[in-house]
Amino acid sequence: MKQLFDVLIVEDNVVDQQVLSVYLEEYDITYLMADSGEEAKMMLESLSFKLILLDIGLPGIDAYQLTEIIRQEMKIDVPIVAVTNYGIDEVKNKCFAVGMNGCFSKPIGRVELVGMLTQFLPKEKLTSDNNLSFEMINLSYLKEVSLGDLDYEIEIAEKFIETITYDLTALQANFKANDREKLIGAAHRTLSTIYIMGLKSKLEEALLAIENNDLPTKELESKLNYVCNVCQKAIIETRDFIDALKA
Hints:
Elements: E1 3-10, H1 14-24, E2 31-34, H2 37-46, E3 47-55, H3 63-73, E4 80-84, H4 88-98, E5 102-105, H5 110-120, H6 140-146, H7 150-176, H8 180-194, H9 200-212, H10 217-246
Parallel strand pairs: 1-2, 1-3, 3-4, 4-5
Helix pairs in contact: 2-3, 5-8, 7-8, 7-10, 8-9, 9-10
C-alpha cells in the first residue's frame, strides 16, 4: 500500500514553497514538495495524496500537461488545484478543461489556503464549539485550525469580512454589467472565501450554479440575491463573533 499524504505541492519558486510550508505546518496537514512536473510524476507513482496544489508556471512538464498525465495516464482522480500569477479569467477555462478542480491567484495567503483546504481537503472529524451559536456561520473548522488562538480567530474573521465584502461587490457589479465571464470568476473566488466560516452547506450549491453559467437571467438573479442575503447575515454574525472575542 502506498504511503498517504494530505497534500502534494508542485511549486518551483522557493519563496512560495517556504510561505506554504509555514502555513501548512500550523495545522495537522502532511505534505510533500515537488520542484517540477517530472518530480511530481515520480512521487505520484510511489505515493498517494488527497490533494494536489499545482503552480501553473512550472518548467518542463507544465501544469496542464501534468494534469492530463495524472488524469488520463495515471488515472488519479484526487482534486487538483492550480495557483497562478496570471488573472483567473485568463487560465480558468483551460484549467477546468484538462481536469483541474479549482484555480486561485497568487499570492496565496493564510485565509485563502485555509479556504482551499476546507473546500478540497475536508477534515474527517471536525470539533464542535457550542459556546456561541449562529444562524449562518459555523465556527467548527475555524476553532479547529486556530488551536485555541483567539487572536488568530479574530484575524481570520476580520479577513473573512474584508474578502467576502469584496466578493459580493464583484458579484453584484458583474451581474449588473451583464459580464458573465467575470461573474463566473467572482463566483469561483467566493467559493474559496465561504468555507472558513462554515458557509458551505448554505452557499456552495448556489455559487456552483452561478459558476456553471447555465441559468436564465431571472434564476441567476434569484441565486445571486440569495448568496448576497446569506453573506450579509454572515458578516453581521462574524462581527458579533469578533466583538465577543474582544470583550
